[in-house]
Amino acid sequence: MANDAYGKHDSGDPLDSAKFSAPRFILEVEDQIIPVGVSQFVEQVIYESAEGAVDMMKVSLNDPEKTISKLKLFLPGNELSLKIGYGPSASNLVHIGRAVIVNVRPTFPLGELPSLEVTAYTKDHFMMDVRPDPDPPPNSRPKSGKPREKKINWTDTPVELIVGAIGAGHGLTADVDPVDLPKGRVYQPLKMSNYDFIKGLANITGFYFWVDCDENGEWFLHFKDPEKYVAEQKKMYTFKYAMGNESTLLTFDPEMVFKGHYTKIQAQTKTASGKVLKSTKVEETEHEWSTKPIDPTEEAEGEIGTAQEITLFIGEYSFKAIHKGEIQDEATLDKWLEQWWKRHREDFVIGSGQVVGLESLRARQIHRLVGLVDLYDGEWLFTNVRQIFDTGPGYTCEIVGRKLV
Fold it and tell me: Is position 82 within any domain?
């Protein structure tokens, strides 16, 4: 089978890889496979990728003779590498990820075997502790008498070059898409970590930002345009619920994003003459435990479309909707927004569940869920994927996702 962005499968059926083979894993420390004398005590291995967070690996081991905790194998700073797959040989396994050991915690409980838990993170974890260290700027004071905040001036530098330069300082190879954003004033306060700064740039541009490592040991900083990234994935799996032997969606628990909250949605557009039109709708749910309503006069920030291209702002999300014909005034926009919300309010759902173990699943991928009900069937953006290899239940993936409108 040909390799693609999601691994070694072609058919789109996650069961293909699991029908005839049992899953297995290989765990390496500093590129050396851990010895059988240690691997036999591994109870669980987890690799978690999440949108907007650092990837994590966790290994749990029994330590009956209290010898594993004495080994120099699992020392902070060592790199763990995980492969999982189906089949009899190492060539059938897929590289899941690599992470740097940060914490090693032995436990000696009453009446149970001693154990060891090893926690590791991808290298963006260490970017959280690094702040810029330029030549000290002059200690000038403005008229207020307070010292000016020291900061790095990235003004007129393209965002992709800023991200690449910071990544290079951490030994990361840049995988960065061009950012279609006018050059402007960009500053990084000296008290702001490199991680928070790049994450802030990702929030402003709407790009994905994450760090990972390939199976050859090369670390990458990714800063990707979501639309291009999704198109590059090429494959969408279909996970099926309650379909007998064809079931691949084992459990699923969806909920409305706005359940129990006040909801604010704002539409912005402009006429052919350039006049900006705005409409805001704030709706209270029936639940008495609702949160405090958002101020309906608060301005939404973002690009304003043309009369036929309306930009919608809902919480932290913004996206575009197309209106047939031209909207001439705010009364018409108000009516359109009311009708749009009635049609789409149930589309805003999130969900979590469990699927069969599939080595190629990661956060930031789009997949299809079927066999639920019409409201929840459809395409979902997986925002969190937890690969779990457990000696008890076996190999599964826990997912968290957002249904796409």
Answer: no
User: Is the CB of residue 374 less than 8 Å from the CB of residue 352?
Assistant: no
pLDDT band at 323 (very low <50, low <70, confident <90, very high): low
Q: Is 296 helix (H, G, I), strand (E, B) or coil?
A: coil
Q: How many domains does the chain have?
A: 1
280 located within any domain: yes
- For 319, the token pair is 């996206």
pTM: 0.75
DSSP 215: T
Which has the minimum average pLDDT: 30-39, 43-52, 275-284?
275-284
| Domain with 313 in it | 258-347
Instruction: Output the average pLDDT for the chain.
Output: 80
Tokens coding 394: 């076996």
- Whether 333 maps to a domain, the answer reads yes
DSSP 134-168: -SPPP----TTSSPPPPEEE-TT--HHHHHHHHHH
Contact 355, 397 (CB under 8 A): yes
Pair 20, 361: CB distance under 8 Å: no
Give, in order, the Cα–Cα distances in Å from 66 to each of 38, 76, 107. 12, 19, 10
Range among 12-16, 149-153, 261-265, 370-374 with highest mean pLDDT value: 370-374
Spatial neighbors of 127 by CB under 8 A, at least 6 apart, are 166, 170, 193, 194, 195, 198, 211
DSSP string, 27-89: EEETTEEPPHHHHTTEEEEEEEEETTS--EEEEEEE-TTS-GGGSSTT-TTPEEEEEEEESSS
Residue 198 has pLDDT above 50, yes or no: yes
Percent of the chain residues topping a pLDDT of 90: 45
Position 37 pLDDT exceeds 70: yes
Strand partners, 222: 175, 210
Tokens read off for 113: 């075997």
- What b/e string do you get for 299-310 counting C-beta neighbours within 10 Å, with b at 16 or more? ebeeeebbbeeb
Euclidean distance between CA atoms 324 and 313, whole angstroms: 20
Tens digits of residue pLDDT in 89-128: 778 899 999 999 999 999 999 988 999 999 999 999 999 9
Question: Rounded to the nearest 10 degrees, what angle do helices 194-205 and 159-169 cross at?
Answer: 160
In a domain, 264, yes or no: yes
